[in-house]
Amino acid sequence: MKTEKIITPFNGYLAFVILLITAALIVFGFTSNNNLLSIVLLPIFILLLKGLIVIRPNNSKVLLLFGEYKGSVKLNGLFWINPLYNTTSLSLRARNFESEKIKVNDKMGNPIIISVILVWKVEDTFKSIFEVDNYEDFIRIQTDSAVRKLAGSFPYDHFEDERATVTLSTNFDDVNKALEREVTERLEMAGIEVVESRIGYLAYAPEIAHSMLRRQQASAVVAARHKIVEGAVGMVESALKLLADKQIIEFDEDRKAAMVSNLIVVLCGDSETKPVINTGTLNQ
């Protein structure tokens, strides 16, 4: 398999000077009735003119001679090449590609919607032109394929797989690095350099989004309740210990149980507490 060959063509400015001299001699020949000189120099003038090429910054020219690859020019400026060469222009600028939002299944089988943003540029002009049919279509199809593989490699979050160390929705750096490696491997044969690759959009599919939101909310409520109960138990323990240390009042087991019950209700309740006046004894 051939690889890219970088060539340095002839200086175009010098060729342009020779072109002007040739043009002047042709005009001189016609004006001085020396037609033979003009006829001889005219094909040279045409070849010199046809061989001039201009390459803008971050652009390149791929050179072919009767279907055979001769090399690539990545310099910018005015150059002269063999006028028999066929040239193909190729941009070397960095370009963005945002994939379509596609529905795929994550590692746990949940349908999700995902898209990626890819920053890429042509690195090997030979591979981009001759190894694939259309490198831009190749990038689009291979990126979609890499996204599908990535989504199936990780769960969406920790709710489905609590033992997972990397998830799509939390470990963005790790996921983006995995995506970049996968896309780079796929696009290497097309001579494409992946500058950056990251997830642009990520969400549950509409048919399960509401259920997953309710599940997350329920988990958050349970976690919050756990913290509230844990704090309330600590406060009750501190209150009983403080009363006992200062000997303010002595409680038997029944009164301790009643106090603990009342404090837990007050501290863990959602609504505001409403005082109740006891008009009887403490035992009532």
Automatic annotation (TrEMBL):
Its main location: membrane. One of its GO terms (cellular component) is membrane. Keywords: Hydrolase, Membrane, Protease, Transmembrane, Transmembrane helix. InterPro entries: Band_7, Band_7/SPFH_dom_sf. SUPFAM superfamilies: Band 7/SPFH domain. GO terms for molecular function: peptidase activity. It is found in: Membrane. The chain crosses the membrane at residues 12-30, 36-55. GO terms for biological process: proteolysis. It is a single-pass membrane protein. It comes from the Bacteria. Pfam families: Band_7. Residues 50-216 form the Band domain. PANTHER family: BAND 7 DOMAIN-CONTAINING PROTEIN, MEMBRANE PROTEIN-RELATED. This is Regulator of protease activity HflC, stomatin/prohibitin superfamily. It comes from Flavobacterium xueshanense.
